[in-house]
Amino acid sequence: MALDGVTVLVGTTKGGFLVSGDADRQGWSVEGPLCDGWPINHIVGDPETGRLWAGGGGDWNGAGVWRSEDSGKTWELAKLTKGMADDWAANDPDFAAMIGWTGAPLPFGDTFEQIWSLGYAHGALYAGTKPAGLLKSTDHGKTWEKVEALSNHPSADSWNPGAAGLVLHTIVSDPDDPQKLWIGISAAGVFATEDGGQTWERRNRLSNAEACADHHHPAAPANGETGHCVHNMMRAPGGGDVLYQQNHHGVWRSSDGGRSWDDINDGLPSTFGFPIRVHPRDPNTLWTLPLNGDSAGRYPPDAAAAVWRSRDGGQSWQDMREGLPQDSCYFTVLRQAMGGDRQDPAGIYFGTNSGSIFASFDEGDNWHEIARHLPTVLAVEVLD
User: Fold this and answer.
1) Mind listing the pLDDT tens digit for each residue in 131-184?
2) pLDDT at position 1, please?
């Protein structure tokens, strides 16, 4: 992987993949599967060093974070919890020898099943787990500690699992303040810290909370809060802590770091979807990919794919379809499966559960399929 080009970091059900292009975003090639074919829920990287991390696992493997110090050529596993393979190996010496099992103690036993999300900022690496918890590493992913203050939040007993379980799937940092962090949990909502994780505040209040106190908001539960099943969230560039989230119940904008949220669904064909992406320089440009509904199949409305773009912070939306399938399109794009580069114009990339990677190099006007026939795509990030 060359840092003078663009590399799409793809997590799938059958390992990690690197989809690499040149500096002109041409000549795409695919490398993988990586990480011994583990299910990989998220891959992130450090563009300054080329260091990569891939988090995943499951019932068979247990949970772990893979680390590459050489831009993806070789990988080393920090295994964090045990899976069925460990139980088999403990009782079958031949199987243990075959997989190289040593029986070394694991730092978190069997307390969680998977790593679902990763976030790197200010020299610290964070990992979200299933069931929902937050881990932190200060040595580039070699060793980990649990952020106990989040697990001990007074609301923790009320957190309910979404369809994929109780997962911490989104980690958002402030590029200028290492003490500030936002996380998303399904289905518990948005939480924020401004003291490096020592204390956490739950932030799901609607900006018109008083008007919604005694009845259901059209796109959210009662009590003046957004739906607690946040699907994905991203901070806009610049000051002011502008956040956007795609929720189970719609798309929302916060101008105050999540302390209050405004409904920006008007103009979209559906309130249901998974990913959201914000422009790397313009806080008012964002993209989302609506699906036809929770129980209606979770595919593009009318089986015609479109990424919807706003240039005015969600006040209006435009469907971007050129180059995307418009007939019999039944794929799903999952919560972490949309990424973006920092080029000018900005590139937007998304992956489907049918194994395709689509890219736009002109901020959504035109789309190109740069990879196909991959396993189910779980996550897309971009290193450039």
Assistant:
1) 999 999 999 999 999 999 999 999 999 999 988 899 999 999 999 999 999 999
2) 42
With a cut of 60, say whether residue 339 has pLDDT above it. yes
What's the pLDDT score for residue 212? 60
Q: What is the 3-state secondary structure (H, E, C) of the chain?
A: CCCCCEEEEEEECCEEEEEEECCCCCCCEEEEEEHHHCCEEEEEECCCCCCEEEEEEECCCEEEEEEECCCCCCCEEEECCCCHHHHHHHHCHHHHHHHCCCCCCCCCCCCCCEEEEEEEECCEEEEEEECCCEEEECCCCCCCEECHHHHCCCCHHHCCCECCECEEEEEEEECCEEEEEEEEEECCEEEEECCCCCCCEECCEECCHHHHCCCCCCCCCCCCECCCCEEEEEECCCCCCCEEEEECCEEEEECCCCCCEEECCCCCCCCCEEEEEECCCCCCCEEEEECCCCCCCCCCHHHCCCEEEECCCCCCCEEECCCCCCCCCCCCCCCECEEECCCCCCCEEEECCCCCEEEECCCCCCCEEEECCCCCEEEEEEEC
Question: Could you tell me whether strands 273-278 and 114-121 are parallel, antiparallel, or unpaired per DSSP bridges?
Answer: unpaired
Phi, psi of 251 (to 5 degrees): -110, 135
According to the model, what pLDDT value does residue 54 have?
Answer: 98
In this prediction, residue 221 carries a pLDDT of 59
Rounded distance, CA 343 to CA 323, Å? 20
Average pLDDT score, the chain: 94
Q: What is the per-residue burial (b if ≥16 Cβ within 10 Å, else e) of 22-33?
A: eeebeebebebb
Phi-psi region of 116 (alpha: psi -120 to 50; beta: other; left: phi over 0): alpha
Q: Poorest-confidence range of 12-21, 120-129, 200-209?
A: 200-209
How far is the C-alpha of 156 from the C-alpha of 182, rounded, in Å?
A: 16
Res. 239 pLDDT band, cuts 50 70 90? confident
Structure-block tokens of residue 38: 């583990």
Q: What are phi and psi of 302, to 5 degrees?
A: 60, 20
Q: Indicate the burial class of 37 (C-beta count within 10 angstroms; 0-12, 13-18, 19 or more).
A: middle
Instruction: Give this prediction's pTM.
Output: 0.96
Q: Distance between CA 346 and CA 233 in Å, rounded?
A: 19
